[in-house]
Amino acid sequence: ELSPVAPWTLYIGAGWSADTKKEPIVTNIRAVEKVVEVAPKRGRVIGLVHEAGKQEGIAGAIVGFTGHAELNALLTGKEGRFTTFELTDGTYAFEVSADGYKSGACQGVIADAKDSQADCALEALPKLGTLMGTLRDATSGTAVSGVTVQLVDAQKKEQTATTDASGSYKFEGVSPGQAELHVKADGYLATVDDAEVKVRQDSHHDMALRAKSKNALAIVGAKEITLKQPIQFAADNATILPASLPALAEVADLLIRETRIKRIEVKGHMDPSADAKHVSEQRAESVKAWLVKHGVEGSRVSATGMGATAPISANVTPTLRARNRRIQIAIVEQDPKPKPGKGH
User: Fold this and answer.
1) Cα→Cα distances 73→52, 79, 317, Å
2) What are 300-341's pLDDT values in tens digits?
3) What is the rounded distance in angstroms from the CA atom of residue 237 to the CA atom of residue 231?
4) Pairing of strands 261-269, 301-307
5) CA 84 centroid distance within chain
6) What is the dihedral of CA 265, 270, 275, 278, to 10 degrees?
7) Which residues touch 260 (CB under 8 Å, ≥6 apart)?
8) pTM metric for this prediction
9) Residue 14 banded pLDDT, cuts 50, 70, 90
């Protein structure tokens, strides 16, 4: 080692080291366990919703899970069937509802992941409807109150109702289909109307009552009902003209009220035309049909075409021939007219 002499300064040094023994190599090993989850086996519930006692399915029925709020309800298809999504083994109860049926219940049991069948029968509600309406005066339009209305439904069951102060009436629990309404009110012609009753719906049918004429157009005699005005038809056919409807309405009213008249015969008469027999038959049948439609029992009315066999005038002028073209209403069977009591 030399002392530094200016202008140079030099330092030299060296060093080393060495291990006298080898250190062990340490290796860290960590075991990782992998868990594999196995999905449980699943099955489905396949069901049919139908009316009790019938196999036809009910479309649009709502099928809900009982006790499983997390599961969405199902809707049946056109054939009334439903299929759940896949479910684990167990018992599944369903609440079933459909329009027109009482709510019901059924269940399906899934075991060993196999599909299960469910039979869901619902009891049908009564298919009845309601019929309501108003009675009014045909001329003034005012309500007719305190009048009894008789209804005969499609099953021939009868009900009666009385109109209130506003002329309204109401029938409940009526069998669906065509019903008949019968009204006999003082001062008015007896009226019969057809009304359509719908299943489980409110149906409406208003009626107009025609007041009786002060000058009667139909009069009951000993052997026939006399018409003050002839029944008019369209030329050469059996279509009744509107002008003759008031007279026919009075005939219907008489027969409805006069139950002692058991049977009548509508006779059609013609002038000696080429088709007199045929036309006279058609016209007699047309009058019969009108009376039956307006409340006269069909068993009380017969129709006969007389042709030109019983003229009341000589067929020499158009006017006289027109008189022979007529409708005659003969009384075939009737009970004796009751004798008036004392004081009458």
Assistant:
1) 22, 18, 84
2) 999 999 999 999 999 889 899 889 999 999 999 999 887 776
3) 13
4) parallel
5) 34
6) -10
7) 334, 335, 336, 337, 338
8) 0.64
9) low
